[in-house]
Design a protein that fits this description.
Number of helices: 7
Strand content: 25-35%
Strand order of the largest sheet: 6-7-8-3-9-10
Structural class: alpha/beta
Number of strands: 10
Radius of gyration: 17 Å
Largest sheet: 6 strands, mixed
Order of helices and strands: EEEHEEHEHHHEHEHEE
Helix content: 25-40%
Shape: globular
Distance between the termini: 23 Å
């Protein structure tokens, strides 16, 4: 599902060039759940952005869901994400002027689906928010907003789900419920999962854990996914 080969990313700053990623090689199989852990600034989120086609590497090959991303136009990358990728951000990233139903329907409307709102309603019901479809983000709790974000990520039945610190803005009890929901939906949909986290216990729920430091993958642990 994900194949990165010798991926580097160098960014310019006032202090000179910054090497964000330094020769990343990564292969993630279809249906696999992989946790990516490491300190702040290690390159975790940047690696996810490259896998999503939201960032262009300086060098290297990026192949995701059968698509070679390097060199694609912005329009082609947008279509790639629409057709293959769901993303759950730590900060939810809901449109504040849209209801929960409208937020979840966005990717389906962009895809031209005539049943966008019916499918969005079913997706919200699947995350336990069928009674909150008409509410705006500021009328929802943090946990409810994240569940809307998860419903939006899954509504198109993506082959790949990228989750960046999905519980980072939530309290412990709510975060635990969100993780159970995330892993349950990924399992039910046979979705490949790349989970970015600071929490090694959370990462341990995945089939495999990768440790990244200073822009390099420094360690890999095979784990048995929790039931």
């Amino acid at each position: 599902m994900i194949q990165l080969a010798d991926v580097t990313l160098n960014l310019r700053s006032a202090a000179g060039e910054v090497n964000v990623l330094r020769g990343i090689d990564l292969s993630v199989a279809a249906g696999e759940a992989v946790g990516l852990v490491g300190p702040s600034g290690a390159g975790k989120s940047t690696l996810m952005m490259i896998a999503a086609g939201l960032e262009t590497p300086t060098t290297g090959r990026v192949r995701v869901a059968g698509c070679d991303l390097v060199g694609l136009s912005e329009d082609a990358l947008a279509r790639f994400r629409r057709d293959h990728v769901g993303i759950v951000f730590q900060a939810f990233r809901l449109v504040p002027t849209m209801t929960a139903l409208e937020n979840v329907a966005i990717p389906l409307e962009l895809a031209g689906r005539n049943d966008a709102f019916e499918a969005a309603e079913a997706a919200l019901a699947a995350v336990g928010l069928d009674a909150r479809t008409g509410h705006y983000p500021d009328q929802l709790s943090g946990g409810e907003q994240q569940r809307v974000a998860i419903a939006r990520a899954f509504v198109s039945a993506p082959r790949l789900l990228l989750a960046d610190e999905p519980t980072g803005n939530l309290d412990g009890k709510t975060g635990d419920a969100i993780i159970e929901l995330l892993f349950g939906l990924a399992r039910d949909h046979c979705t490949t999962l790349l989970l970015i986290t600071h929490d090694p216990v959370l990462a341990g729920r995945c089939d495999r854990v990768l440790h990244i430091a200073d822009g390099r993958i420094v360690e890999q642990d095979a784990r048995q996914a929790a039931e």
